[in-house]
């Protein structure tokens, strides 16, 4: 496995392979790799001839009171996973290389970013959109893989690629979960053993909403109330938001008639968790 730190060297490597007709896959990460990342890497390895994984803790998507300095950086562990999974290049740029002196451009996707995570973390998605645009420019992938756990982010990246004609095929893979259903996240390491046991209630709340939709409930207000009731049964959890949304616009749906995504975010102790479930409404039975 090759380790590249220079953006120029990364682009030169990719351009050489593209001239040779090699299909390049890309999994962008902030490190602290877990089984969710591993699943993306494995899928990319199957779909592409060459594979790049980036490890970059992007400072522009953290707010002033968020955990940038505390964010886990187990680089040796991350490199070991990449080697095990047959990654060709581990791209590890520095913050100075990504945002050199005089850097001033910001990329935004306003309609996608304005609500849910965007309301709670107003700085976040401009940082995500900007760094993803830069990484795509440096890595020059044909295909990039993202996890469904960060659902709003995946919608934002797809809109970004479409709007700016970036020519990258975006693949969104299902959320990988622990045995009890907790969505895998690099921030799960911050949970105490007691908090870890309680944290799964967010997923249970979303499951409640999904079951209601599958069995015929269409009123989003009733569904949100039921999800909140489940989560509030765990006093340690504080809800940031619960939403029933359109899959592509992320606008709230008053009534569910087809597919929808249930979004949820909650805090337990100092840890903030997000999760989602995509669900289809029960289809009316035809009369013959």
Describe it for me?
The protein is an alpha/beta fold and 288 residues long. The strands form 2 sheets. A 6-stranded parallel beta sheet has the order 1-4-3-2-5-6, sandwiched between helices. The protein has a 3-stranded antiparallel beta sheet with strand order 7-8-9, covered by helices on one side. It contains 11 helices and 9 strands. β3, α3 and β4 form a beta-alpha-beta unit. It has 2 domains: 2-173, Rossmann fold (3-Layer(aba) Sandwich); 187-280, Pantoate--beta-alanine Ligase, Chain: A,domain 2 (2-Layer Sandwich). It has helices spanning 7-19, 35-47, 75-84, 95-98, 110-113, 117-120, 124-139, 151-163, 193-199, 201-214, 220-232; strands at residues 2-4, 24-29, 50-55, 89-91, 143-147, 169-173, 237-245, 259-268, 271-280. The chain is 39% helix and 20% strand.
Overview in brief:
The protein has helices at 7-19, 35-47, 75-84, 95-98, 110-113, 117-120, 124-139, 151-163, 193-199, 201-214, 220-232; strands at residues 2-4, 24-29, 50-55, 89-91, 143-147, 169-173, 237-245, 259-268, 271-280.
Brief descriptors of the model:
single chain, 288 residues, Rossmann fold, 2 domains, six-stranded parallel beta sheet, three-stranded antiparallel beta sheet, 11 helices, 9 strands
Sequence-ordered SSE layout with sheet pairings:
Blueprint: E1 2-4, H1 7-19, E2 24-29, H2 35-47, E3 50-55, H3 75-84, E4 89-91, H4 95-98, H5 110-113, H6 117-120, H7 124-139, E5 143-147, H8 151-163, E6 169-173, H9 193-199, H10 201-214, H11 220-232, E7 237-245, E8 259-268, E9 271-280
Parallel strand pairs: 1-4, 2-3, 2-5, 3-4, 5-6
Antiparallel strand pairs: 7-8, 8-9
């Amino acid at each position: 496995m090759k380790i590249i730190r220079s953006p120029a060297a990364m682009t030169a490597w990719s351009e050489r392979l593209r001239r040779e007709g090699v299909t390049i896959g890309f999994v962008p990460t902030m490190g602290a790799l877990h089984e969710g990342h591993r699943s993306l890497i494995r899928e990319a390895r199957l779909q592409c001839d060459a594979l790049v994984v980036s490890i970059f803790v992007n400072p522009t998507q953290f707010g002033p009171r968020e955990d940038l300095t505390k964010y886990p950086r187990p680089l040796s562990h991350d490199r070991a996973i990449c080697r095990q999974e047959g990654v060709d290049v581990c791209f590890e740029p520095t913050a100075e290389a990504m945002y050199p002196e005089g850097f001033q451009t910001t990329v935004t996707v306003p309609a996608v970013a304005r609500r849910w995570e965007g309301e709670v973390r107003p700085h976040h998605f401009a940082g995500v959109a900007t760094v993803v645009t830069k990484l795509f420019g440096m890595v020059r992938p044909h295909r990039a893989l993202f996890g469904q756990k960060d659902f709003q982010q995946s919608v934002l990246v797809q809109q970004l690629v479409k709007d700016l004609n970036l020519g990258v095929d975006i693949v969104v893979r299902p959320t990988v979960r622990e045995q009890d259903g907790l969505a895998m996240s690099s921030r799960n390491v911050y949970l105490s053993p007691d908090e870890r046991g309680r944290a799964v209630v967010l997923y249970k709340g979303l499951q409640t909403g999904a079951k209601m939709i599958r069995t015929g409930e269409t009123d989003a207000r009733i569904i949100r109330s039921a999800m909140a009731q489940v989560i509030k049964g765990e006093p340690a959890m504080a809800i940031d938001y619960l939403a029933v949304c359109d899959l592509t616009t992320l606008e709230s749906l008053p009534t569910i008639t087809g597919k929808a995504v249930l979004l949820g975010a909650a805090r337990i102790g100092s840890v903030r968790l997000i999760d989602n479930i995509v669900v289809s409404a029960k289809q009316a039975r035809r009369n013959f």
